[in-house]
Amino acid sequence: MYADLSRLTFRSDRRYSAVVAQQGRVSLDADANEQTAIQLHQARTLAADLIGQHGGPSGDAGFHIRFKGGSRDLDDLIIEGGRYYVDGILCDATRPLPGAAVDDEAADGASGTEGEADPPEPDEPPATWTYWDQPDAYRDPERPGDRLPEQRPFLVALKVWERSVTAAEDPALREVALGSAMPDTAARVKVVWQVLPVESAALELENPGGASKEQVGKAFEAWARKATAPGSRLAARAERPEQADQDPCLVRPDARYRGPENQLYRVEIHEGGTAKEATFKWSRENGSVVFPVDELDGTWVELASLGSDDKLDLGVGDLVEFVDTAYTSRGEPLPLLRVEEADLPGRRVRLSGEPEPGVGRRPELRPFLRRWDHRETTRRPRKGAAARLKRGALKVEEGRWLPLEDGVEVYFAPDGAYRSGDHWLIPARTATGGVEWPVNAARKPLLQAPAGIQAHYAPLAWVTAEQAELDLRMVFGPLAAPAPAADASALAAEAEAAAETRAREDTEPEA
After folding, report:
1. C-alpha closest to that of 61 among 80, 83, 79, 39
2. What does R_g of the chain's alpha carbons equal in angstroms?
3. Which of 51, 74, 131, 499 is the most buried (most CB within 10 A)?
4. How far apart are CA 10 and CA 1, in angstroms?
5. pLDDT, tens digit, for every residue of 325-345?
6. Side by side, which strands form the sheet with 234-238?
């Protein structure tokens, strides 16, 4: 998640069940966040154990899919409301109802202006989502790649993942009573669900047209395992740079990490693919330095603020990513841009290029700039090596240690398959002069799979022809049931006791 964190300490293999606060100790964000992670892990593990890989309650199972084909309009899917669990994660497809506004004329006792037509009643909002207006997918009918497959059959799947949300995207998270000069407070984590098609060719079915429900389900499971399996690994270390003796004595002379402050480095894949195609970017602040955009005019961007201090500001030469809610949800990277000029009084910056047409033009999607801290290298590249920056990001180089800054280095394992958004977190600490990274007995850094993004998938429907779909969802009933009747011996004892009571009443003399 993009948030201003010190580090993330939750590890499921440590089997911790709770975080215990101690009196008189410093309170850290990592401790509170680990307690949240422990509880979330326990709840989702329990739900997955009881429900299975996916399923919905029989009385209100969500995401029932109805295919809507048309000769003139684009094909569409109707997504019915309700709840569904994927790997224990709750997804809710219920469409929120609009609120009721106050009728000012009725409240004031006015009957309206004579002869003036009443305003038209607003259209009744739809009760369900569709493929084109689902809340976190942002499908575009103008993009052929977003349209439903013309070739049938195809599978409709539910993709689930989580992302962080800060006050830059949701201003309601900011407490205005703290004042505009104060930083924001806590961030949020949001469950994102997307209903997306999977072409039958990707499932590698021998006879897609005649496949049974069980065959489609097994083929989808194999596809989902491949889609979610980590394809790349990274290691990190801190090594004392050769030019460390030339630096002023701001840190210990023997320190391997030479930064003057504690940092949480984030190394993130920008464009995915093979090592020849993939690029990465990095941030010393976990990608949390963002600047909400007030207005975009060509290459000039007016910002709500240029930063609160010299560490979290925006200056000439910085590389930024123009982001909004749709861009984040789609996960399709665009070129990073460089800040060419800064107008401090006007809170404006001029970028090296105009942002792509599909991002930042809609204020309701909360556009903002995200700062990344890598720079184009000034040293001459190795013989035969390509330019270090590709569309503003660094090229992945496997099998060698790559320096970031202040002695921090990363290593990409050979033969990796990279996905946009995959990331690793590297805490760097001045007290130890190194980075926190798992090592083996010989103190060599271990290769680690990405910390995220963790996507989860579930099959929803198998669309075979127009107006025909096979429901692939699973349902479960409630565990509660009526209390069982007493066994035979208990019933006999009750009958005997009742008979004895009647006998006593018959023998007792009347008063």
Report:
1. 83
2. 30
3. 131
4. 14
5. 999 999 999 999 999 999 999
6. 234-238, 408-412, 401-405
